[in-house]
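Here is a protein:
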Amino acid sequence: MITKENNLYANQTRNDAIALPKTFISNVFSWMGIALAITAFVAWYFASNENLIRLLYSETGMTTLGWVVTFAPLGFVLLINMGFQRLSAQVLTLLFGVFAILIGMSLSFILLIYTSSSIFQTFAVTAGMFGIMAFVGYTTKTDLTKFGSILMMGLIGIILASIINWFLHSTQLEYIISFFGVLIFTGLTAYDVQKLKRIGASVDSGTETYRKLIIMGALTLYLDFINLFLFLLRFLGNRK
């Protein structure tokens, strides 16, 4: 027999099932936003300071420090992912912050190449596309797991194509890579948000693992946003 207490318990269970992933996703987006703000500030600060920018780029090309800053973020991503079990949430947060600083340093060159108006325009378009796909990923009832697997295969493809184009310097291939890059990271945004929603519903809040997963989720969406922005910039950016 269904009693009033049963109904109250069922309602509370449904409310918890909704609130837990919502709070988790909210925290993920908060940390992602903080990281993006750090990256934007560092990029602007380096681009506006001639002495700092010369530490990364010289008249003959990229300096040794510039190359280190360019490839160091990859090491940080590997360190964060491989150290998830061993490192504390505080250490992961610190590494995420340093990672955002390094990305800001490496992206400072775009402020020297592209006009400010086109950068702001591209950022606005990126934010709009990212927001729409994040909403789709959070609200859709469709399981995007298989879709995500296809996107990951496509991501591997554009990484390999980018490495090849590093030697070919083909403008046409670069635009093709950028086109597919926009499609892939637009789709990955929806897929990753849905995945994070499921994680938020399955992990206990307030635990060390919960705090770690928030940082990992923020890193994932941060990378989706940054890559989508960079690929769109190749289409929407106006050079100085």
Summary: Strands lie at 57-58, 61-62.
